[in-house]
Amino acid sequence: MLNIPLAKPDLNGNEIKNTLHCLITNWISSQGDFVNQFETEFAKYCGVKYGIATANGTVALHLALTALEIGAGDEVIVPDLTFISPINMIIFSGARPVLIDVLPNNGTIDPQEIKKNITPRTKAIIAVHLYGQPCQMDKIMALAKKHNLFVIEDCAEAHGAKYQNQKIGGFGVISCFSFFANKIITTGEGGMCLTNDQKLAEKMRVLLNHGMNKKNKKYWHEILGFNYRLTNLQAGIGLAQLEKIDLALLMRSRISSLYNFYLKNTFDKIKSLEKLPNANPVCWFYSLIINEDNLRDKLLEKLKENNIETRPFFYPAHIMPPYQKYIRPGQHFPVSEDLAARGFNLPTFVGLKELQIKYICEILEKNLSDFYN
Ligand SMILES: *Cc1c(COP(=O)(O)O)cnc(C)c1O
Predict the structure, then answer these.
(1) Which atom, in ligand 1's list, is nearest to the CA of 178?
(2) For residue 265, how many C-alpha atoms fall within 13 Å in the half-sphere facing its CB?
(3) pLDDT, tens digit, for every residue of 159-210?
(4) Strand, helix or coil at 206?
């Protein structure tokens, strides 16, 4: 068997045509029609009014925090188990990240823990829809309302997922997406902020373009801004990806069903992430949790020897050097530590063949039973 990668973009639609269009017409910067079109179409797909395209998902988070004027003296609640971007962006905004534990077997932020960690300084909650699993948005929104907090959704790993039949990305005041090459749809690098608030949308547009308002004088900077723009080349790819997003989600869900089928004899030793009630997750990666944490890395090593690329779950943020100082006295993260030690992802991408899935599952099953014999 040839090497099976963890992820691979599917660029076989109008990506080439749209890219060529940019090259032929010379519209290769952030000016050009594809950017506005991509913003409009993606926002519509998520059921949100305004889309603001950004250079990547990380700066989308920074843009959201900046637009909400979150900074020095503020606290922002964020899960301890996440890709690191939201935590880094809170710190760069000048605010303090308040790391909290996640839900057992599921991995998204724990609303009980949010409640316990709200202080008079709390300004916002960043809800990360981790590994395709939507957060418990009803509870999170209720807490936010009660305590007058902003909710920012980090949707980078869950395009198209739903909670209580509503697409994620429309619950919080701003939601942030990434279109990195391994995400559900990609522009290579790229991201977007969505919001239903017109004023915030306009503010983000000005912030991301050096603090200039396109409607007013050029080179007149009304506020301090960034260059966080997406290019027309990337937006063209994004539009082509968006045409296929529902098909891509369907194929990913089929991959997940095939893994479930071929792994059915191993579910006493490993199990999938559990979805929350009323959640419709998407399959970003097929994620598994092994019962015994000391076997996880050995198993991934065996898969690697058989040319199967995998990825362990993220490390708990609080154990890494830049974040240790944010642990509050008496705080513990048993669930985050446990999931980080036992979780891993298997290859998941449009184009992954049933034969390859079968092969991956055979190798996995064989090695698991070897460990136990
Ligand atoms: C990928 C990712 C991001 C950041 O995306 P980039 O486009 O790579 O900057 C942010 N948050 C989460 C949860 C992610 O998985």
Answers:
(1) 7
(2) 11
(3) 999 999 999 999 999 999 999 999 999 999 999 999 999 999 999 999 999 9
(4) helix
pTM, rounded to two decimals? 0.97
56 lines ligand 1 (CB under 6 A): yes
CA distance 130 to 17: 33
Q: Which residues are registered as beta bridge partners of 280? A: 162
CA of 57 to the centre of ligand 1 (A): 5
Print burial letters for 25-44: b (CB count within 10 Å at least 16), e (below 16). Answer: eebeebebebbebbbebbbe
Query: DSSP of 87-108, one letter per residue?
Result: HHHHHHHT-EEEEE-B-TTT-S
CB of 109 sitting under 6 A from ligand 1: no
- Provide the Cα torsion 10, 13, 15, 21; round to 10°: 170
For 58, phi then psi, to 5°, come to -65, -45
* E strands, the chain, in order: 50-54, 75-79, 96-100, 122-128, 150-154, 162-163, 166-167, 174-178, 191-195, 270-272, 279-280, 286-290, 311-312, 343-346
Q: pLDDT by residue (tens digit) across 38-93?
A: 999 999 999 999 999 999 999 999 999 999 999 999 999 999 999 999 999 999 99
Does 83 sit in the ligand 1 pocket, CB within 6 Å? yes
Is the CB of residue 128 below 6 angstroms from any atom belonging to ligand 1? yes
At 319-352, the pLDDT tens digits run: 999 999 999 999 999 999 999 999 999 999 999 9
Written as one letter, the residue type at 142 is A
Q: What does the pLDDT read at residue 217?
A: 84
Q: Evaluate: CB of 180 within 6 angstroms of ligand 1.
A: yes
- Is the Cβ–Cβ distance between 321 and 327 less than 8 Å? no
CB 325 within 8 A of CB 94: no
CB of 153 sitting under 6 A from ligand 1: no
Asked if 219 and 270 count as a contact pair (C-beta separation under 8 A), the reply is: no
Q: Around Cβ 320, how many Cβ atoms within 10 Å?
A: 11
Please tell me the distance from the alpha carbon of residue 217 to that of residue 230, in angstroms, as a whole number.
22
Do strands 279-280 and 162-163 pair parallel, antiparallel, or not at all (unpaired)?
Answer: antiparallel
Q: State which amino acid sits at residue 157.
A: E
